[in-house]
Amino acid sequence: MGGLVPPAMQRTVATFRRGDLFRIEGEELKHIFARRWKVGQKVEVFWEGRLFLCVLESISKKGAVCRILEEISTRPAEPYVYLYQCVPVEIGKMDFIVEKVSEVGAYQLTPLLSSRSFQNLQALEKRYERWRRIAFSSFKQCGRPIPLEIAPVTHLEDLKCRGGVCMVLDSFGGEIWLSEVNLKDVKEVHLVVGPEGGFSEKEVQLLREKGFLPVRLRPYTLRSETAAVLAVGLVMNFSSPPSPTSS
Ligand code: SAM
């Protein structure tokens, strides 16, 4: 039956490579022991932005060795969803957003500054390493082909509708339900989500002028992080991707 997603294969990150062999040490090795990998098992190994199907050849307390069988395509699932998330005043909520939008399939996340968002740029920049770690751990867990990209902080006024379908999630003035937006054969979706206090009227107007369609989610008002995860998940599941059998 089309549409069934195979379970994600177990993943690790190589410490170094020699020819067609990868060696895994340190924290990753501890994870391998914790997950009870067995010699002969097929696994995925991430190395310098590339992913390889490998077989585990040996394992000891000093390290594990995996032999490359083939390189795996790292083409992300379409459509590419670019999420522009106004940073919640409760900044810790961004951890949840990073992890969950990675799982549901967003391609890129841009932390956005708006009139009611978290404002401290320096504090935000210090969070990047943490967010990249969360995104990476989610990548290992969920089977996506590359980690969620986390783009530099951007001001709402500087956003541009760069083609594809551009939408702003607007719980008040949204003119159309998300379910009514035509996502057929769409390759890119740009999605703006407000902070806890929502957007100002001026901001929604500005985004509208830039080409972002104000859309609503049924049936209630959601927390910012719920809206982000739900919207990305709906777009990924209700757009029309290539048939699973053709990939
Ligand atoms: N009282 C706030 C307001 O002025 O809109 C509610 C903000 S809501 C907690 C945070 C953000 O989540 C909103 O700015 C919007 O982007 C998104 N959101 C929440 N529920 C939504 C819905 N039902 N439809 C569209 N967007 C929604």
Description:
The protein is α/β, with parallel strands linked by helices and 247 residues long. The chain has 2 domains: 62 residues, Ribosomal Protein L25, Chain P, CATH 2.40.240.20; 159 residues, 3-Layer(aba) Sandwich (Alpha/beta knot). Helix content is 27%, strand content 29%. It contains 6 helices and 14 strands. The strands form 2 sheets. Strands 7, 8, 9, 10, 11, 12, 13 and 14 form an 8-stranded parallel sheet that branches. β5 and β6 form a beta hairpin. α2 runs parallel beside α4. The protein is elongated. It binds S-adenosylmethionine. The site of S-adenosylmethionine has 17 residues, from α6. This is Ribosomal RNA small subunit methyltransferase E. It is found in: Cytoplasm.
Q: Specify the helix fraction band.
A: 25-40%
Number of helical segments?
6
User: What average pLDDT do the residues reach?
Assistant: 93
Number of domains: 2
Structural class: alpha/beta
CATH class of the largest domain: Alpha Beta
Beta-strand percent range: 25-35%
**Uncertain stretches of 5 or more adjacent residues:** none
Global outline: elongated
CATH superfamily of the largest domain: SPOUT methyltransferase, trefoil knot domain
What radius of gyration results from the CA coordinates? 20 Å
Number of strands: 14
Give the name of the CATH architecture of the largest domain: 3-Layer(aba) Sandwich
Task: Give the biggest beta sheet.
Answer: 8 strands, parallel
